[in-house]
Amino acid sequence: MTFRPFGFSDVGLEVWGVAAVTLVLLILALLAASAYVLFRSLPHFQDDVREATMDLSPAMRRRFFAVYDAEKPRDPAVAWFLAVALGPIGVNFYRGKGLAFLAALVSLNGLGAWWMESWFTAPQFVLMENRALIKQSLSFVQQEAARDGSAKAMAFA
Length: 157
Fold this sequence. Notes:
Layout: H1 10-41, H2 47-53, H3 58-70, H4 76-86, H5 88-95, H6 98-106, H7 108-111, H8 113-156
């Protein structure tokens, strides 16, 4: 009587081996694809900030950057590296999303499915959050300028 792990014949073990190698190759292909998408979009991460500040005066632009930097925008590249290393656990901790962090921790990154998915979505989530910060900062600076303008107009009246 020969030993058969898991009760499989030799052909069954070969199928498991081929399936394991195929899975590893698919995961590596997904990682390569997400790296390709990330590195192609790296030069464009600051385009939203440039477009938002294009029409501002130099003084308002400096004020915008002071307000925007105080909000601590996140870096999409850091989010991607955390997604690759730690999955949603690392990304949600970096983004400051406590409930999502706990969900990823309890579910073990969705048993790996969320981990691979986060390679593609983590940088996009960070970009969306940064765009919201840009809008908030721009609105704040414009309201500040309007208040200062109306106060100056009242002083001259």
